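Subject: design request, 222 residues
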């Protein structure tokens, strides 16, 4: 249940359809060749992408897109490295005309959420789902009845209790720092899934907005 499965049967089916090579991917060794390291990295990233896809069904992505389209304003927030992805996500949405913002200032985030209503949306990105600042943002959103979409690890954490929608990220544990990088890969994969599927819902409109944005930016550069 902590992994998000509704039954043991569902877990069994997922295990049967999991890539057979996943369990055989070894951790990176200090004395191995560059080729061996590169091969393992690509396999590990492929594994993370597959697991991210498996953990987030189409209905979750579609509901996320619906909430984004209906929201009057969107605030996206993360701490540390997750803040980089929050800014990336906000920028991607802004370029197609969605009113989205991001900030690394926690007090500004709290004040902004306190001005939001149920017609707005808060998206929180947290690797652990236990970060105090993120939980505080979630609590404020809940107090003001602002919908919360959380992008956090698949294993249940405190952030789950404040979330209307949960986007599950995964990582690969290792003795190197690669698990942190694979988590970023999972986050980026989810953001791009949402953005590109959102773009498809009104392709001509979003394309026009994006083209106009590029024209404005190029004019400013001149």
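Subject: RE: design request

Done. Sequence follows.
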């Amino acid at each position: 249940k902590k992994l998000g499965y509704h039954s043991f049967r569902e877990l069994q089916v997922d295990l049967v359809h999991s890539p057979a090579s996943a369990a055989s991917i070894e951790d990176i060794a200090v004395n191995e060749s560059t080729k061996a390291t590169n091969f393992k990295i690509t396999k590990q990233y492929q594994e993370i992408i597959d697991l991210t896809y498996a953990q987030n069904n189409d209905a979750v992505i579609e509901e996320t897109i619906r909430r984004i389209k209906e929201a009057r304003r969107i605030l996206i927030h993360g701490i540390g490295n997750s803040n980089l992805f929050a800014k990336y996500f906000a920028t991607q949405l802004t370029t197609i005309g969605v009113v989205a913002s991001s900030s690394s200032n926690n007090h500004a985030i709290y004040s902004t959420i306190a001005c939001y209503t149920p017609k707005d949306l808060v998206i929180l990105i947290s690797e652990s789902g236990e970060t105090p600042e993120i939980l505080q943002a979630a609590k404020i959103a809940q107090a003001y009845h602002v919908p919360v979409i959380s992008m956090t690890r698949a294993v249940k954490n405190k952030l789950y209790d404040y979330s209307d929608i949960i986007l599950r990220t995964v990582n690969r544990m290792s003795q190197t720092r690669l698990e942190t990088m694979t988590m970023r890969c999972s986050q980026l994969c989810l953001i791009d899934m949402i953005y590109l599927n959102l773009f498809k819902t009104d392709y001509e409109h979003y394309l026009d907005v994006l083209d106009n944005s590029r024209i404005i930016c190029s004019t400013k550069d001149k």
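The first helix runs from residue 8 to 16.
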